[in-house]
Amino acid sequence: MPTLTKLFSMKEAALHNTPEDCWVVIDGKIYDVTKYLDDHPGGADVLLAATGKDATEEFDDAGHSKSAKELMQDYFIGELDPTPEIPEMEVFRKEQDAGFTSKLMDNAVRYWAIPAAAIGISVAVAILYARKK
Fold first, then answer.
1. pTM
2. How is the chain classified by DSSP, letter by letter?
């Protein structure tokens, strides 16, 4: 029977980035390494720098031993949630549509002078041109 593990989002795991509360994500698994910070051979700074992102590459590049990988299991708390984060959908209501219409009408009233001036200048030029002939 499969073991059920708690799922965490990367956003949630990234919130745990202090010496008092430190989570690290490696190979899609999340480890609470807060109690291990003082014992880590590379120092606490190495683990703190690995928070807030997937630290698999850094972990693999460091060349950890088999015993170090076995020790990680003591700090395992869950897995990274594989479902993509879906942005919240914006809901438009009729009240919002009325706001759009009123803004459009305000702009039409505010800028009526530009096309009117262009037409007026065109008419004046046409009249002056017709008089010269």
1. 0.61
2. -PPP--EE-HHHHHT-EETTEEEEEETTEEEE-GGGTTT-TT-HHHHHHTTTSB-HHHHHHTT--HHHHHHHGGGEEEEE--SPPPPPPP---HHHHHHHHHHHHHHHHHTTHHHHHHHHHHHHHHHHHHHH-
